[in-house]
Amino acid sequence: MSPIEQYKAGTNFISAAKMNYTHYFLKQLTGWTLHPNTGIQGKKSVRIADMGSQTAVWAIDVAEDQSFEADVHAFDISNKFFPPTPWLPPNVTLHRQDICSKFPSTLLETFDVVHFRLFIMLDEENIRSMVKSAISLLKPGGYIQWIEHDKTGLKPITASKDQDTSAVEALIELEKNPFPNYNFRWINSIAPVMAAEGLDVVVEERIETRASLLTQMHELHLIALLDIPRGMSETVDTFKANYFDDLASDNAKGIASVDNFKIIIARKPM
Ligand SMILES: C[S@@+](CC[C@H](N)C(=O)[O-])C[C@H]1O[C@@H](n2cnc3c(N)ncnc32)[C@H](O)[C@@H]1O
């Protein structure tokens, strides 16, 4: 398995904790689990598909939302991080499924919303097959919600004047190129691919991490570094040897990076 394949698959409980923490971080940052423009307002019952669920934290959160009755189906190619079935809410069903391949015919055109979040390394062909799968699952008029880390405008920030941002600047460079053949700009292809596949893109927006969440975001970067075991990437090993301790102490000093997230909502025509 290539380093990026190992990283994508997740390693241990640190990978799970990172995704679960990211979920609560994003919920606090955006104020929602399902974007208000996903057609759920006023609906009593909603069928939802969560693609690449990993720990199913998003699926479980949306299933426990008291404002509508949800029937949530979560799909992942691996069940490594699935919670035990007896611990799931009754309205969540987990499936092992490659989301780039055909889905069982009984599921087709049965969902109101299809959700994608945080896929680290894709190319336009992966995006196209994932969008095609979503279209096949959606009822006419249903919505896709897709959220990704947007690394195009990363910048250092300090709480006081004249603080040293060298470790954070090095982190920003690493984030843009953590693995061979990684191109952080792939997220800019999501909306154009959706439009080319006949969907109406109704939201394409960027949310910047606000000051009150910078410390949490910095902690997430540190956890993400811990989630890359020694030997998986020489670049990351060297980076950690040079900067991890400085980055850890930066957190207490008020030195961080400002990260962005991209949100895309698209509707399948009636
Ligand atoms: C970084 S995790 C994101 C987890 C989740 N979406 C979240 O935001 O909490 C990416 C997940 O996508 C899954 N995945 C990647 N490619 C996939 C594929 N072709 N089919 C199904 N799952 C896939 C991985 O197994 C992993 O669990």
From TrEMBL:
Domain Methyltransferase: 48-142
SUPFAM superfamilies (UniProt xref): S-adenosyl-L-methionine-dependent methyltransferases
InterPro entries: Methyltransf_25 (IPR041698), SAM-dependent_MTases_sf (IPR029063)
Domain of life: Eukaryota
Protein name (database record): Methyltransferase domain-containing protein
